[in-house]
C-alpha cells in the first residue's frame, strides 16, 4: 500500500476471514490498534476449512 502512496487511513472496508470464531476477539483488538475513527467498515466471516495452516485472511479496500 505504501508503494502506491497510500496508508491505512485510506482504507474504507476490511473483510476478515477466520477459521475459528474464538479468534474474533483477538482480531478486533488488533484492528483497533491499526485503525482509528472513522473506522473502516468491517466484515468478519468465519469459514470452515478442514486443513489449512492459515488462521486469518484479510482483504482491504482503499479509496484513492
Give the CATH level 1 class. Alpha Beta
Which superfamily, in CATH terms, is the homologous superfamily? RutC-like
Mean pLDDT: 88
Cα distance spanning the termini = 11 Å
* Secondary structure category: alpha+beta
Beta fraction of the residues?
25-35%
And the CATH topology? 60s Ribosomal Protein L30, Chain: A
What string gives the helices and strands in order?
EHEE
Reported for the largest beta sheet, the result is: 3 strands, mixed
Low-confidence stretches: none
How much helix, percentage-wise, in residues?
10-25%
Describe the fold and architecture.
The chain has 64 residues and is an alpha+beta fold. It has a single domain, classed as RutC-like (60s Ribosomal Protein L30, Chain: A). Helices cover 17% and strands 33% of the residues. It has one helix at 24-34; strands spanning 11-18, 41-46, 56-62. The chain has a 3-stranded mixed beta sheet with strand order 2-1-3, with no helix packed on it. The radius of gyration is 13 Å and the shape is globular. The relative contact order is 0.37.
Helices and strands, with pairings:
Elements: E1 11-18, H1 24-34, E2 41-46, E3 56-62
Parallel strand pairs: 1-2
Antiparallel strand pairs: 1-3
List key phrases describing it.
YjgF/YER057c/UK114; 64 residues; three-stranded mixed beta sheet; alpha+beta; single chain; Enamine deaminase RidA (YjgF/YER057c/UK114 family); 17% helix; 60s Ribosomal Protein L30, Chain: A
Amino acid at each position: 500500500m505504501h508503494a502506491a502512496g497510500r496508508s491505512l487511513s485510506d482504507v474504507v472496508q476490511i473483510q476478515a476471514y477466520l477459521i475459528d470464531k474464538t479468534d474474533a476477539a483477538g482480531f478486533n483488538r488488533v484492528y483497533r490498534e491499526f485503525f482509528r475513527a472513522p473506522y473502516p467498515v468491517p466484515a468478519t466471516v468465519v469459514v470452515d476449512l478442514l486443513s489449512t495452516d492459515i488462521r486469518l485472511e484479510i482483504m482491504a479496500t482503499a479509496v484513492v
